[in-house]
Every structure is written in structure tokens, then in C-alpha cells.
Design brief:
Elements (H helix, E strand, L loop, with lengths): L5 H4 L5 H10 L4 E5 L2 H10 L22 E5 L7 H10 L5 E5 H6 L20 E3 L6 H17 L2 H25 L3 H14 L7
Parallel strand pairs: 1-2, 2-3, 3-4
């Protein structure tokens, strides 16, 4: 019987490394498309740019079957509660890419009706600049997200998501206590956060 070489038979690693390797190579995207960035995203999924090279070809339009949200276009304050609900329904762990200047900062729409950056209401992992960004930029954003997933610990991601759910509970409590709509409760929370010197509600 051949002698067993332990160096060839045994591999030691960390749990975070193995799990994150699987996570970064099996992202299931869900587009939250509202404007021109969504049109650019269509070409990212087509054969020329082929996002499936990154294991992300299983695009889903149900949040319960996806773990990577791409917010593509302008988001109004009225849409903020819907965006938060969809994010809450996504499978865990989950990540968000903010695509284009409108999603990232409100873009050219410095108005009362437009949310000045989705990172005020949901956690964002990667920002892709542009108006609209090229497909190559979106692919680069996915690659930067993969790098982030590779380096983070499992507990970091859990804590990241937990803080969002705590803010969602506060939103629902405000709605029930004061009879507010989702949009009104989020506005109330943003104003409270601003008074404390914070830019986000989670």
C-alpha cells in the first residue's frame, strides 16, 4: 500500500475563506432599474459583455431568489420604502451595487422629490460612477464587489445586515405609532439622523 503523503491529502484553510470563495462566484443579480442605467445593464447581461463569466448569469426578478441588488437609475423619495422592502426580502447574505450618479447621489436632480443617494436608506457596498456608466464600468463594479466579499468576515456581513433590520423595525414602529406612511417615516428618520450628524438611518 502506498504511503499517504499528508501534504497532498490535507488542505488547511479558514471557514471565512471557503465560504466567501463560494459566495463571490455565485452572485445572483436582481436589477432595480428605473432609468437609463437599466438600459445599459441589459447589454451587460447580453452575449457581448456576458456577466455569466462571473457566475452571475442567474438573474432573478424576485428578491427572494437573489442576493446582489443593482440599483440602476433615479430613486424618488416615494420609492424609498419599496426599495427598503425589496432589500429586506432578499436572500442573505446580500449586497448592493449603486449604479450611476442618480442612485449614488441624486445626480442632476437636486429636488425635494429625489432621494439624494440610496445609501441613506439601504447599505451600499460598491458605487459605479457615470451617467450612465458603460457596461465595462458595471462589470468592474461587480469585480470590486467580489474583492470585498473575499476579504470580509462572516460576522461583518451579519452585523452589516442586522443594522438594516433594526432600522426597518424602527420605521415600522413609527408607522404604527404615528400613523405615517413609509415615505413619511423614512423622512422622519432621516431628519433625526441629520440632527445627530449621521447621513444614514441604519
Amino acid at each position: 500500500m502506498a504511503e499517504l503523503n499528508m501534504e497532498e491529502a490535507v488542505l488547511t484553510t479558514r471557514l471565512d475563506t471557503v465560504v466567501n470563495w463560494a459566495r463571490k462566484n455565485s452572485l445572483w443579480p436582481m436589477p432595480f432599474g428605473t432609468a437609463c442605467c437599466a438600459i445599459e445593464f441589459m447589454s451587460v447581461m447580453a452575449s457581448k459583455y456576458d456577466l455569466s463569466r462571473f457566475g452571475a448569469e442567474a438573474m432573478r426578478f424576485s428578491p427572494r431568489q437573489s442576493d446582489m441588488m443593482l440599483v440602476l437609475g433615479t430613486v424618488t423619495n416615494k420609492m424609498a420604502p419599496v426599495l427598503r422592502t425589496i432589500y429586506a426580502q432578499m436572500a442573505e447574505p446580500k449586497w448592493v451595487i449603486s449604479v450611476g450618479v442618480c442612485a449614488s447621489s441624486g445626480g442632476m436632480y437636486r429636488t425635494y422629490a429625489t432621494l439624494q443617494g440610496i445609501d441613506r436608506v439601504i447599505p451600499v457596498d460598491v458605487y459605479v460612477p457615470g451617467c450612465p456608466p458603460r457596461p465595462e464600468s458595471m462589470i468592474y463594479g461587480v469585480m470590486k464587489l467580489q474583492e470585498k466579499i473575499e476579504k470580509e468576515s462572516l460576522s461583518q456581513r451579519d452585523d452589516h445586515i442586522r443594522r438594516f433590520y433594526e432600522s426597518l423595525d424602527r420605521q415600522h414602529a413609527l408607522e404604527a405609532e404615528k400613523g405615517l406612511t413609509g415615505q413619511q417615516a423614512i423622512r422622519h428618520m432621516l431628519m433625526d439622523a441629520a440632527e445627530q450628524g449621521a447621513a444614514t438611518i441604519f
